[in-house]
Amino acid sequence: MRLEPDSTAVIVVDMQNGFCHPDGALYAPGSEAVLEPIADLVDRAREAGAWLLFTRDIHPPEQFDDAHYYDEFEQWGEHVLEGSWEAEIVDELPVEAADNVVEKHTYDAFHNTELEGWLNARGIDDLVICGTLANVCVLHTGGSAGLRDFRPIMVEDCIGAIEDDHHEYALEHAAWLFGEVEPSAAIEFA
């Protein structure tokens, strides 16, 4: 699969200390396990001149105080609080000045963020999506991308999960409903 760097963005979803580091509140070993392949994908994209974008899941401590139904703290406990070490992107994936960072407050990186406008302003059509968690933020971001007529390409060996079944479900769902699934070795930047 050859992609044009000018119209392609690699989106690295939520590779933060809270999810990828053993001291994180929502640490998943599967998230830590994909750090190396993601770093390789990011390096190849950077070298080719593709766009790079990192998402950060961030929650102000009071975010769900007035929630009627949607309350991630009830589901997962407090995590990646605004300004905390947990909310920072892991050191293994350094963000450079030319990269964009999108802060989000839900599973979907398009919901109430500047992501869609940022992509459209740069003529980006293809999204190479990696990160964590497969069946949560990666799946919701990929599905939302497809609904907005972007081409979501889920990178199967660069997506972390809590359990193997979650990973398998998310990728099967993505391939069936809204996107494509490819191994990182198959992704080339023209």
TrEMBL record:
Coiled coil: none annotated. GO terms for molecular function: isochorismatase activity. Keywords: Hydrolase. InterPro entries: Isochorismatase, Isochorismatase-like_dom, Isochorismatase-like_hydrls, Isochorismatase-like_sf. Residues 8-182 form the Isochorismatase-like domain. Gene3D superfamilies: Isochorismatase-like. It comes from the Archaea. This is Isochorismatase hydrolase. It comes from Natrinema pallidum DSM 3751.
